[in-house]
Amino acid sequence: MDRPIRIVMADDHPVVRIGARNMLTESPGFEVLGEATDGDEAITQTIELQPDILLLDLSMPRMPGLEAMRAIMNGSATVKIILLTSTITTQQIIEALQIGARGIVLKDALANHLQMAIKTVAAGDYWIGGKRVVNLVSALHELMQQAAVPQRKTYGLTPRELEVVGCIVEGCSNRDIAKQFTLSEETVKRHLSNIFDKTGVATRLELALFAIAHHLVTPQ
What we know:
By secondary structure, the protein is α/β, with parallel strands linked by helices. It has ten helices and seven strands. It has a five-stranded parallel beta sheet with strand order 2-1-3-4-5, sandwiched between helices. It has a two-stranded antiparallel ribbon with strand order 6-7. The radius of gyration is 19 Å and the shape is elongated. The relative contact order is 0.10.
């Protein structure tokens, strides 16, 4: 990116905002456009200022971070959102990434990770667990291995459809799936169409994320 990365910060704690702003303004390549102290302000400033990156506190007054992020994403915003939080559960990480978060930075690691996280997300990758993540589906699969897996719901999917879902999570093409189960590619397409209808998703990536978040696949 030739120009500075344009940033809005949303956090109700002044110390966090001041500390993050100082870290960013002291380094070339970053421009802080504005600051917000609650979820409503975060939405307003994101719409008005059109930043590249929104640093969004997970827990804020008036509207929590996840709700604010959902509202921003529903507005078709092009902003990339990095959540700031003191603590976060695996399930919250998965929910945040499903809504549209591109990064998660713990507040006690701001000094070490914030600038790299912003650069990583601005470049198109994800920042999870203190590192760059290129393959989001693989990263979420690893997260699920660390979490207790509750009783699985099938959402009306047949055993064969669940097998197809597992293949999608693994990155298989329609041809790969057809070969594995001795099916025609047209049959695989029909299975996928049924799966999309039952789960309410529209793309293979959305299906993979849905499958991991709702435990349709068992971590290996």
